[in-house]
Specification:
The complex is a heterodimer of chains A (about 160) and B (about 280). With about 160 residues, chain A is of the alpha+beta class. Helix content of chain A is about 30%, strand content about 15%. Chain A has two domains: about 5-80, Ubiquitin-like (UB roll) (Roll), CATH 3.10.20; about 90-155, [2Fe-2S]-binding domain (DNA polymerase, domain 1). A five-stranded mixed sheet of chain A has the order 2-1-5-3-4, with helices on both faces. Chain B is of the alpha+beta class. Chain B folds into three domains: about 5-50, Uridine Diphospho-n-acetylenolpyruvylglucosamine Reductase, domain 2 (2-Layer Sandwich); about 60-170, Uridine Diphospho-n-acetylenolpyruvylglucosamine Reductase, domain 3 (2-Layer Sandwich), CATH 3.30.465; about 175-275, Enolase-like, domain 1. Chain B has helices at about 10-20, 35-40, 75-80, 80-85, 90-95, 100-105, 110-115, 125-130, 230-235, 250-275; strands at about 5, 25, 45-50, 60, 65-70, 130-135, 140-145, 150, 155, 165-170, 175-185, 195-200, 205-210, 220-225. Chain B has a five-stranded antiparallel sheet with strand order 4-5-10-6-7, with helices on one face. A four-stranded antiparallel sheet of chain B has the order 11-12-13-14, sandwiched between helices. In chain B, strands 1-3-2 form a three-stranded parallel sheet, with helices on one face. The chains are: A alpha+beta (about 160), B alpha+beta (about 280). The interface of A and B includes residues 24 and 133 of A.
């Protein structure tokens, strides 16, 4: 451990990990640089865009606004842990719906949508839009992203 | 991000000692603090994470005559909470429109007050429902009305090392009607251009909380009789002093404030009538 570093022990995608970080290291920086899980993206760095969304103790959060040390003892799921060996139905729906353009926002979108479907298994289009309102897609692919989430939930075609 | 030390005290005493140091800041949800640090608006030497302090609650407890909201309670806990919904619906609505899902899972109610934004989303509801805050600091604990909490933009009565440990709302004995309005440029993830809450008692007493129309969130009390004519409305709204900024012009704010205040009163009144 180098000068000023502290150790964090947490569960990442189901596996126990111990990482040494400086106090100012964010959870996002830790997963990207220390754990080399680069699916979570850094974009606005102020909680507006959602590209860094991970699931922390069951709830979606902006990992750019969480210090790594705050996550000590927690359980974190990143996009790499979304499916256990293969894609989830939701991820397949994103592909099938053509919801992925440049792809930068997609890991965050998928994590936010995963959390939404945990909370509301059969959401309406309005609930999908609200659930993803913290995730920006600069390609403007919102229609197909919403479609993909509704399709995965089995509520596609209804109430759009 | 700039460098700082991080501590996570387990008790109020330990926390108070740490916060007494120079350049120490409180970290609760971090949704404003970490943005502030990154923009170099806040340059702490020490970040004190209060999420493990045993004496600061993370629950919403309904007692007979009061609802106690612990200092660590986050916005998403307030949405869909049965006690909030039945007694203080405008607070639930206000919490549900703060930022995004991700922000609401981290941002605390206490932090929203402590940041003292004139547009703080939950402030108008807390003002209209006559909430109090309990604080803890080097000089001990004190409880004061939210109305006396704000001093100016970003400034509160909190002294160095003092933090909010609980927010408390008096549960009304009779039905209270609530009206809520929030004017934004776009539907989601935006700060309010104007926000307000009206809480109307069956006696005709009406309490308003206003956001984004003055240097702090503002509170005013009046009666249905007073508001029967335009002069009453002028007197009520005279405490506000809207400014022009990136979100809205002063004239627009003033116009929206009056229209939505009238609608909120009507909505509150209709609720009371329906409950009769």
């Amino acid at each position: 451990m180098s000068q000023g570093e502290r150790s964090v022990t947490l569960s990442v995608n189901g596996a126990p990990r111990t990482v040494s970080v400086t106090p100012s290291t964010t959870l996002l920086e830790m997963v990207r640089t220390k754990l080399e899980l680069t699916g979570s993206k850094e974009c606005c760095s102020e909680g507006e865009c959602g590209a860094c969304t991970v699931i922390l103790d069951g709830e979606p959060v902006n990992s750019c606004l969480v210090l790594a040390l705050e996550a000590d003892g927690s359980s974190v799921t990143t996009i790499e842990g979304a499916g256990s060996g293969g894609m989830t139905r939701l991820q397949q729906s994103f592909l099938d719906a053509g919801a992925v353009q440049c792809g930068f926002c997609i890991p965050g979108m998928v994590m936010a949508a995963t959390a939404l479907l945990e909370r509301v298994p059969r959401p309406t289009a309005g609930e999908v839009r609200e659930g993803l309102s913290g995730n920006l897609c600069r390609c403007g692919g919102y229609a197909r992203i919403c479609e993909a989430v509704l399709e995965a939930a089995g509520t596609g075609g209804a109430d759009v | 991000m700039s460098t700082f030390d991080y501590r996570r005290p387990q008790s109020l005493g330990e926390m108070t000692e740490l916060l007494g140091r120079d350049d120490a800041v409180v970290l609760a949800g971090g949704t404003d603090l970490l943005v502030g640090i990154r923009r170099h608006k806040v340059r702490p030497a020490l970040v004190v994470d209060v999420k493990s302090v045993a004496e600061i609650g993370n629950q919403i407890d309904a007692e007979k005559r009061r609802l106690r909201i612990g200092g660590r309670v986050v916005m998403s806990q307030l949405t869909g909470n049965e006690h909030v919904d039945s007694h203080f619906p405008a607070l639930g609505v206000a919490a549900s429109v703060v930022g995004s899902v991700q922000i609401r899972n981290r941002a605390t109610l206490a932090g929203n007050l402590c940041n003292a934004s004139p547009a703080a989303d939950t402030a108008p509801a807390l003002l209209a429902y006559a909430a109090t805050v309990t604080t803890s600091g080097p000089d001990g604990s004190r409880t004061l009305p939210v109305k006396e909490f704000f001093v100016g933009p970003g400034s509160t009565v909190l002294r160095h090392g003092e933090i909010v440990t609980e927010v408390e709302l008096p549960i009304p004995t009779e039905k209270v009607g609530s009206g809520f309005a929030r004017v934004t440029r776009r539907k989601g993830v935006d700060l309010a251009s104007v926000s307000l809450v009206c809480a109307l008692e069956s006696s005709g007493r009406a309490r308003f909380g206003f956001g984004a129309v003055g240097p702090t969130p503002l509170a005013a009390e009046t009666t249905l009789d007073e508001l029967a004519d335009d002069d009453g409305w002028d007197r009520l709204l005279s405490i506000t002093s809207p400014i022009s900024d990136v979100r809205a012009g002063a004239d627009y704010r003033r116009a929206m404030l009056e229209v939505h205040s009238r609608r909120a009163l009507r909505a509150a009144h209709d609720q009371l009538e329906a409950a009769r």
